[in-house]
C-alpha cells in the first residue's frame, strides 16, 4: 500500500520554505470540504478492501445461543459454588452497609470526627483494590477453592476484630 504525502519544499538547513498559494485552488470552505470528503471516501474504500483479522462472527460468544442457568451452574462448578459465593458477597455488602448505617454511632462511641469515619470507610475500598493484585496472582497459580476458603476465614476474623475494636485506630486495622 502506498501513501501519498504532500511535502513542503525544503530550503537550506531543513527549514520549510514558503510557497505562493496555488492560483487554481479557490481556497474557500467548499473546496476544502470537498477534498476532505474525497480523502475520507478513499480511506473508507481502502479499509473495506483490506483483510479483517478477526471478523466478529469468529469471536467467542458472538451470535451464539445463550445458555440456561442450570447449564451455566453445571459448567461453573455447580450450584454449591454459586450459593457459597453469593453468601460471601452478601456478607461483604452487609458489612459495608453496616459501616455506612452505623457511622454516627461509631463516631460517637470512638469520639472521632466525620472525616475519620469517612477515611476508615473509604480505606476499605482502597484495600480491596490493592488486595486484587496478590489475589489475582494467587488465583492464577493455585487452586481457587482454598483461596476462597482462606479469604473467607480472614474476612470473618477481621469482622470479629472490628466488633472488638476499642478505638478508631484498631477499628481501621480491623
Structure description:
This protein has a domain at 69-173. 66% of the residues lie in helices and 0% in strands. The protein has 6 helices and no strands. The longest helix has 32 residues, at 79-110. The model has no long low-confidence stretch (mean pLDDT 80). The chain crosses the membrane at residues 73-91, 111-133, 145-166. This is Major facilitator superfamily (MFS) profile domain-containing protein.
Query: What's the β-strand tally?
Result: 0
Helix/strand order, N-terminal first: HHHHHH
Structural class per helix/strand content? mainly alpha
Report the portion of residues in β strands. Answer: under 5%
Number of helical segments with 4 or more residues: 6
Rounded to an integer, what's the Rg over CA atoms? 31 Å
Helical residues, percent: 55-70%
Q: Low-confidence segments, ≥5 residues, pLDDT <50?
A: none
Shape: flat
Average of the residue pLDDT scores:
80
Mind summarizing the main beta sheet?
A: none
Instruction: Please give the alpha-carbon distance between the first and last residues.
Output: 63 Å
Domain Major facilitator superfamily (MFS) profile: 81-174
GO molecular function: transmembrane transporter activity
Region (Disordered): 1-30
Protein name: Major facilitator superfamily (MFS) profile domain-containing protein
